[in-house]
Amino acid sequence: MEPKSAETSLMRMMAGIMRQHHYNSHLMLKDQDVHPGQPPVLFELSRTDGLRQSELAKRMRVKPATLTVMLNRMVKNGHVERRADPDDQRVSRVFLTDKGRAAVDEVRAALHTSEEYVFEGVTPEEKMLLRRLLLHMFDNVKKVEHIISRQTKEEPNHAANANKMD
């Protein structure tokens, strides 16, 4: 068996933290009928309501079929609605409902509370250092995406803001 490097160990720790955070989010949001993958959709639509479903999939960095399943559940729960584009009836646009807009604030509050728990006992200086490290790591993984994209002739995902990690 190959010894684990420090990088592998750190990556596993980060993945474990995110898995636990995902589970905690599920517990915190289930009363609002919001499932763990849905907050980014709510936040994106709160910034730009009425996106084409295809554009929303690009911004979410998910396959259109994956987004369709997610949106079907969100429509069923009353958070979003689909409407035909008035200029092109073949195009579906996605809008927040009143319940969805209310959920945005509830989800933000729940995630803020979760973040407070996560960083309990962490100093502001440590948080600042962690932020710098994570931004540096994010830049590195974006560089790798561009290198791999050139090698595979696949377009990098420009829809995601390369300077943001959300």
TrEMBL record:
UniProt-listed Pfam families: MarR
Transmembrane segments annotated in the record for this chain: none
InterPro entries, alphabetized: HTH_MarR-typ, WH-like_DNA-bd_sf, WH_DNA-bd_sf
Residue ranges of every copy of the HTH marR-type domain listed in the record: 7-139
Presence of keyword Cytoplasm: no
GO MF annotations, alphabetized: DNA binding; DNA-binding transcription factor activity
Protein name as catalogued: MarR family transcriptional regulator
